[in-house]
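User: Can you fold this complex?
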Amino acid sequence: MKRLLVYMKGYRKECVFAPTFKMLEALFELFVPLVVASIIDDGIANKDSTHVVQMCLLMVALGAIGLTCTLFAQYFSAKAACGFSARVRHSLFKHISFLSYSEIDTLGTSSLINRMTNDTNQVQTGINLTLRLFMRSPVIVFGALIMAIVVDPSFKASGIFIATIIALSLVVFGIMLITIPLYKKVQARLDTTLLSTRENLSGVRVIRAFSLEDKEKDKFHKKTDMLNKAQILVGRISALMNPFTFVIVNLSICFLIYKGALEVDSGNLTQGQVIALYNYMSQILIELVKLANLIITITKALASAKRIEDVFEIQPSQRVEKLDKDTSSDYSVEFKNASLKYKGAGECSLENIDFSVSKGEIVGIIGGTGSGKSSLVNMIARFYDAEDGAVFVDGQNVNSYELDQLREKIGIVPQKAVLFKGSIRDNMKWGDQNATDEEIIKALEIAQAKDVLDSKKGGLDFQIEEGGRNLSGGQRQRFTIARALVGKPEILILDDSSSALDYATDAKLRRALSQLDYNPTVFIVSQRTSSIAHADKIVVLDDGKIVGIGKHEDLLNSCLVYEEIYNSQFKREGM
Amino acid sequence: MKNKSTIKTVLSYLKRYWFLIIVSLLFAAASVLLSLYIPIIIGDGIDLIIDTGKVDFDGLLPLLTNIGIIVVIVAVLQWLMNLINNRITYNVTKDIRNRAFDKIQKLPLSYIDLHPSGEVVNKIISDVDQFAEGLLMGFTQFFSGIVTIIATLVIMFVLSWKIALVVVVLTPLSLFVASFISKSTYSLFRRQSESKAEQTSVINEVLGNLKVVKAFSREDEELERFDKVNKKLEKVSRRAIFFSSLVNPTTRFVNALVYAGVALVGALLVINSDGQGALTVGVLSCFLSYATQYAKPFNEISGVVTELQNALACAKRVFDFTDEKEEDSDKGNPELSGCDGDIELSNVSFSYTPEKELIKDLNLKVMSGAHIAIVGPTGCGKTTLINLLMRFYDVNTGEILIEGQNIKEITRHSLRSSFGMVLQDTWLQNGTVRDNIALGKPDATDEEIIEASKAAHTHSFIKRLPQGYDTIIFDENSSLSQGQKQLLCIARIMLALPPMLILDEATSSIDTRTEIKIQKAFSTLMQGRTSFIVAHRLSTIKEADIILVMKDGNIIEMGNHEELLSQNGFYSHLYNSQFEPNEK
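Assistant: Here's the predicted assembly.
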């Protein structure tokens, strides 16, 4: 929580005023029993009707002032809580967007989204309630105690009050302490039933194909049984809370009345004062139960705050290093004995990658599933850092570039074709903020997406929905290619990005790419030999290692893996 | 389902617990009445403490002892009531949840295919919870609230009808204020949740595709976009939270008015009672303590009513689900006997929706051991035939015969277990690798599992997993690639060795080199087994005995590779368009 408190800055006024006004309200409430005592002892005893009327008006006035105070308090706390959570969300969003690929991998997208939404909400509620109640409840509890002493300084009522408060706190907080971890267990078991429901829906065909229905039912029933047991256990314990507090408060009231009677008998107290003490006792009970609920909310909020802080604590692992550069290099991209190991993985995903690419060359990267093709191109834009060795772009180690600068040189078409909500133009401008419509249309033409554009109502103004779901896979893919081309990158990376295109379009695209006037270095990652056969240089990967580099014809003769891949796609067709 | 029948269904779930429910209600009534009696005794007690030297200890002590006894009884009643309510609530939850889950296993596939799984999960998890807590807990609260209000009113009128009148006149004010505020906050909350949804969709889009955002260095622009919705949400929630937080203070204020009114009228009555004993200070104190508690049940009830409505809506959703039409029962049908793999489809017609006819009058005879390939462009309904063979869907007219037995007249289990199926959408269960491979043959030995795993080329990567075959995997686990998942699904079939095979794009995510290696294992497996193969790689299909060419859901051509090529129809077009560019 400590780290997040920074975001309360600027709400100092609200944070002081909200509890203060709440406290004032509580104080006014504490006067009410005294007023009642006065009605009984002064008004009724002296048969003074005017005094009674005055006192009742005073009570209404106290209520009205209390209400006003609360209105202020609620306003300030709502303002502080919402402002705080908006700031946290802003910073969290910013922080997350600066994390590098390997941190994103470790945390997982869904957990990041959860922290941005649920956890910040939880913290907001916690802060709001804390500002509102944290001062009120203790003030009422201890205020009632102090008022009891004020009512009768000589009397030992305060002793009864203290004993009651301690006993109540022990019961309320004791039960809470015991049940909180049990509730966590209930939640965990509920999660497993959820998981198994989801699993059964997504796997319904397999489950039925293997006739596993009854087995799955048994498994699920066992899970609900476990859940039921946990729920009943925690229910049994929390069921003690109300009866226990009820007994404690009422027995203390009995004791209080008895002691009070003794004092009245000996003239130390009046009847009205006994009633006042009795009323204070009731107030304590109500507030302590509220306090307990508040503490549950706060514990939840703290747990959420911890989860948010965990994200803040993760620092982007990538730093810009100061390194010498070799300005004379003719190479666009060089891998110098580079290895890549993903966080938490046992083995390297890429080992001793060593090759150079001249400016303007077209490079094909090919290999089987999991051979490290995407990993290799991801290292060029420094999405992942080399474990050993280094990657150079334009003669300069990628680690010494400002990331913006490095990535500006590179146009990437990712495997998963994603577009964002907004017009086609907005999406295309990702490649270059200042691109003109002509430049965008040119890029769309190269990406073979011009006909798609023409078919869309509004042309460049056509609104793409979230994730691009109002476009087909092939259309999305062509748009993502165009997006990368808009920036006229020095290095263009196509990561298996023509999989949704038919052969004819794929061929046209390749032809257009090879005729680009700004002559970029092109990396084409593919499983299809046909997509890369024309490349100036083909890198064949197998299990994270380079097993062959060369042109198509050379590799067919010299590289067994390449030959096998090729044959698996062509020879069997007899062509 | 109408509300009435929803309630009927609720009652049917509660029937088993009728005795507990009655006991709980009795306990609730008793504990409410007894606890309302306590202020009266305390009032009597206070009347005995009048002034210096005028304290009646002989009368006071028995009263206090009575309070003590009543308090303990009430506490015990409350505790037992809580236990009983917990038991009822959680058991009913469990019953409904189990019933709903069992339902999943009996629903026709069409239901599951048409409904997003999140929707069903929501019904089984959160709707059931909300229903149980809202309805059962709400009901007991509602009941105690009503008892409290009625009993308090009766007691107050008996004690002093004049003060009671003051209370009765003032309380509706509290209800009015509360409902006024909640009505006006409703629209604010709706706007808040709209804003939240808007923000969540930005978060989903950007964080879900963070890698793309980073690749284009768009961090700042996206942050700007986020900040816009963030600001909006901040504003809306501030207002929503503020207005909703007015409910409690205003009712507290109204309550203070009631309190003051009681004190005023009560005190004046005491002063003017002229010592006839009509109203004492004790009774006044008793009234005051009722007045502080009186508004509480009203507030609770108005809260409970919305909760009950909400719970009923949840219950309706759950029961609508459990009342869905199930697959036709196959109880009493014989098992499929002696399956060699002879399959015959005669005059089969089928469509998912009546408007769009898919398969019409299909006749197909498949001899034991034959290989049938189904080809066609994406989305042409290649999997429809599989749905029919596995009886995931039933034919509209015509019949499918296996070994001369209509598949509608044998048990689904025996039909399905005679097919081995590998689908394009891989599915792994949350469990160990071993469990996942042994899904179709739970009693398989380790040797058998490893052998099957070697045949499917999974052994080498499984060995490299942290705990080998005992590694726990999830379907959503990203540590396995799609190709590896598909290989695991193939290993399952290699282990189960059923008499017939269905391979639906079984190797789509596997690179061609590994595919060729598996292909060898597949050919051994397919030898002598009737096999249906859906694939987009024509190489896999060429050697099939029969090729079914599908387009727009219809089978438009049928025959073997050479026959179809010579027809120069859709198949030959498809075949040539795929391979033409490779000839360069």
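The mean pLDDT of chain A is 85. Chain A has three domains: 1-152+303-315, 155-268, 331-573.
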